Amino acid sequence: MPAKYSHIKKRTPNPKKNGKGSGNGSKQVLKHRHPHHPNPHADRSVAQAMSAVTQLERAISRILLLRYEQDIARLFSTRLHDIALVHLPTFVMRCVTLGGPSWAVHNADCEEIKNFFRAAISMDMRQAGERVATKSVLWSYTALRHFAMSNNVTICQKRGLHSMRLLPHYLSLKGHLDVLEALPPPVMSKPPHLGSLKEGIQALEEACEQKYARWSQVPPEWQHDWRPKVRLGYEKVTQTLWRVAREFDVRGYGQVLREKLSTKWCDCGCSTDHLGEVCEKTVREDEEESGVRSGKQREWDGRGSGIFGWETEEEEDIWELELDFSGMDPDDLDEDIDPSMTIGEIMEWRFLKAEREKEQGNTAFRRSLFDVAITHYVAAHKIEPELPHYQLNLAAAYLKLNNWIAAEKACTKALSQHRSGKGYFRRARARKMLGKTDDAIRDLRAILRFQPSNNDAITELLDLLPPDTNAPTPSSSSADQQYLEHLHEHLGIAKPKTIKLSPFPRVPSDSQKLKIVILPTNDVPIWEHHHEVTEKGKQKLTMTIKTNLTPREAEMQKLRRENTAYPSWDRYVVKKA
């Protein structure tokens, strides 16, 4: 949960004086009448009332959580669409410059491109909690508020919605929860209200035209009919981006808010009441400034419930905002993080420190010091719990120590965020050694669903399955086809889709292997911000390089000098392999 929602504590009632005006007079009478034997019927009614409140609060927290997951998927889908328009034209341009105009057409689905996309998306997804949580909670409170208004529930102007007033409408509330529970798992998909790729295609074609127009001798492949090749390659690379994004499971991200909506949500009603106190003012101010837009007053209208927003692109594109505001709740920070650091600095510091731990673990792993490696991998995951590859490293070390249970658990954690072939393969090995043959087979088949030619997975799967005594012997092209069909049937996997032939024949340059190199961090200076007043009385913001660094800032500079690769959409180069 965002910092401003973190202090969810049970409000204690104001102490009241004993006397005729006491609000607890009925309790005093009850206590006086039954000093030694409490009324069992009264106790039962109180217990039933508390049970109803508990059910209500758990339904509310669950609604907030499910809508949060839907919000992450939708908002990050908007982010991916922007990446396709802004960053992919540059990426394709760098590739076709080295491989020719049709290179992307024939190589858009190669592992080199997909691995680069996986690394960059992982870095974006670790920001999901900070970027989505505040808006998601506000949107869900707004939807809960509209539900209350549609049922004539009074809403306090200052304290907002009180959950107790929703008790008579619990069944309707539960009905909405059931609808959310029945929705398919949230996945990345292009929001229908966003435009086409026309803008990106135009930018790519203009860049290619300007680049080769300056050459005195234009290469033959760039002289004629290069536009449709570049355009198709860009479209195929965009399709690969969406396929890779769907490997990620949004339900494994946003752990801070997820924990507070589950284990830390109070069943007595104070958590919802506190949410109302915080959000009500913002909702009313927004309505005063922009008015109540059409559709917003319908019951359960809003994000997170399977609806693709209100076609308000400016509200959806939150990844363009810089995370450079400080003031995070000290209770949510690690002990060694300076509270004055901005969120952007904190996230960079966490990643660099986690990568240092990982590299130390890799060094120990290569020396067969697996216990030492495990210590470093655990430390890396503790620093960056929403980057799944640390758990995969941990699983590899556990496998070396024959600790199959711990290896399976580490892989399951990683797969809850990113469904990778490496995660499934290592978990299959652990499950095989634990005697969980059926589970191991399912993991290997999961690999072959998105990596049909993974020979290691095929070999392991054949080893686990009963011997195939009816396999045809390949002797000709038709027999080879029959053998492959029989093999897929025996493995229990679907027949690979027929690859659609490209309208452009393959040329020698299309076989050129390219390598995408992620650039390391460098020694970026730390800047100080100063507010100055001009002669006209206006404030002016100036920046100077900070020389008197705090211990935390000095450590940040030291980490940057270690040249750690920092995956992003604009810090890479494409080279010939």
From TrEMBL:
Keywords: TPR repeat. Residues 1-45 are annotated as: Disordered. Gene3D superfamilies: Tetratricopeptide repeat domain (1.25.40.10). InterPro entries: RPAP3, TPR-like_helical_dom_sf, TPR_rpt. It comes from the Eukaryota. Residues 1-19, 29-39 have a biased composition (Basic residues). SUPFAM superfamilies: TPR-like. One of its GO terms (cellular component) is protein folding chaperone complex. This is Uncharacterized protein. It comes from Armillaria novae-zelandiae. PANTHER family: RNA POLYMERASE II-ASSOCIATED PROTEIN 3.
